[in-house]
Amino acid sequence: MMFLSFGCIAKIYKFPCAVIRRAPHEFKISCLEGIRDLFPTDVNPFYAGFGNRITDEISYLKVGIPKGKIFIINPKGEVVVNHRVDCNHTLHYMHWWMKCFLLCLHMNRRNIMNGILEGAIT
Questions:
Q1: What is the structure's pLDDT at 9?
Q2: DSSP per-residue string spanning 91-103
Q3: Strands of 70-73's sheet, edge to edge?
Q4: What does the domain layout of the chain look like in residue ranges?
């Protein structure tokens, strides 16, 4: 059996209201604040934000994501940071960077597990 908290019900209610009023950022902010509230007050669980509308930037700023970490993809497919097209952050470059980052995480986890297993064997 699943119970919904009042906060969950309120957020579900806000969705159609935000869509009808053409204010989707209000719903997004509400959801992001709910996620942020799951963490201690001195921790911001958000590192960066991606979107394709100015309302995405408004939402991310509201929950404490720094301006330089908000990436908006414009209709031409260009990455916009701080309202300027950023040639250093193309989608191709960001995809490459994420693959490298995830590979490093995987290799680091693998090395840690190998160290644990070697310690258990000896």
A1: 46
A2: HHHHHHHHHHHHH
A3: 49-51, 70-73, 79-81, 84-85
A4: 1-87, 90-122
